[in-house]
Amino acid sequence: MVSAFDLVVCGESAKFTMAYTRAGVTPDGTSSYFLARHIGLRRMLDLTLTNRVLSAQEAEQWGLVNRVVADDQVDQVTADLATQLARGPSWALGHAKRIIYSGCDTPLEQAAELEGVTITTAMSRRDGREGIAAFVEKRLPKFDGG
């Protein structure tokens, strides 16, 4: 299930496995779609066919998780990350995700066109103008979602 999330923070004692074939069944929960995109086909096959258990550090090295933190810091780190994202330019964040995910399955020319259209729109929005102004003025931006 972790492969369906955009950002993943886990504690250092976390372990990850695909136990489906051990139970005599096949992968489920969109793992066949997302997991191979995150970690690659060979690693997906390794996890699925051997039921290998990954440590938190291995999962980070493989690209399955973004950050490994002390177990007692998981809640604080995820809360801080959620706050950072909530205070960010929501339109730009949402559309950045769209561009990135579509870029995985889109020809280069279409991906470049989508990026061009989207950045032009972003720069015409309040948050885009504020972000550029803050960058030029070397200050933190104040986004309002506009």
What can you tell me about this protein's structure?
With 146 residues, this protein is mainly alpha-helical. It has 2 domains: 2-76, 2-enoyl-CoA Hydratase, Chain A, domain 1; 87-136, Lyase 2-enoyl-coa Hydratase, Chain  A, domain 2, CATH 1.10.12. It contains 7 helices and 4 strands; from the N terminus they run ββααβαβαααα. The protein has helices at 31-39, 41-50, 56-62, 74-86, 90-103, 108-124, 126-136; strands at 9-11, 15-17, 53-55, 67-69. Strands 1-4 form a two-stranded parallel sheet. A two-stranded antiparallel sheet has the order 2-3. α1 (31-39) crosses α2 and α5 packs antiparallel against α6. The longest helix has 17 residues, at 108-124. It is flat and about 55 Å long.
